[in-house]
Design a protein that fits this description.
With 168 residues, the protein is mainly α. The protein has five helices and no strands. It starts with 8 loop residues before the first helix and ends in a 5-residue tail after the last helix.
């Protein structure tokens, strides 16, 4: 069996969503190409392409953190980590996971209030197209942080399990 194939439903779902969100960047390129042709070739600029691109790219950046955290692909400063023994590394893993979980939890809590207020007020972009850009971006940021908090909590549990020796 190929070890690259995700084994859990959550992992398979994340891998699928990662591809979908990656395709959204390609869609943005085509939309911006369309805008360039419409504006400079036909003299008929759109009122929606710029904001639609902002929405797609903003949501993509918000959810990108989920994929990075899940894959442990974030930037690490490993000078100290690599200079200590494996037992100390496991302790550092617990500490880092604990701090990450707490930090993400506080961020998710803070963005919940901002997103809820934007939803309640029905915030719009205020342009000719006037989409609910603030609501979409703030909700995406909250949802991403909430999911990242769950991922960090799972990683904390895994780090604690590696710290405690198993009884046989």
């Amino acid at each position: 069996m190929n070890s690259d194939i995700p084994k859990t439903w959550a992992a398979r779902t994340l891998r699928f969503l990662e591809k979908v969100f990656g395709l959204l960047f390609i869609l943005c390129v085509f939309m911006l190409g369309y805008e360039i042709v419409a504006r400079y070739v036909f003299g008929a600029p759109t009122i929606w392409v710029h904001e639609a691109t902002v929405i797609l790219v903003g949501v993509n950046f918000a959810v990108g953190g989920i994929f990075v955290l899940y894959d442990h692909a974030h930037i690490n400063i490993v000078v100290i980590y690599q200079s200590v023994s494996p037992p100390v590394q496991r302790i550092l893993d617990v500490f880092i996971s604990l701090v990450s979980t707490a930090y993400l939890c506080f961020l998710a809590y803070a963005t919940w209030g901002v997103a809820a207020q934007a939803w309640r007020l029905g915030e719009k972009s205020g342009t000719a197209w006037n989409p609910p850009l603030p609501v979409i971006l703030k909700a995406a940021l909250f949802a991403s942080l909430a999911i990242m908090t769950l991922i960090a909590a799972v990683q904390l549990i895994q780090a604690v399990r590696r710290l405690v020796p198993r009884r046989t």
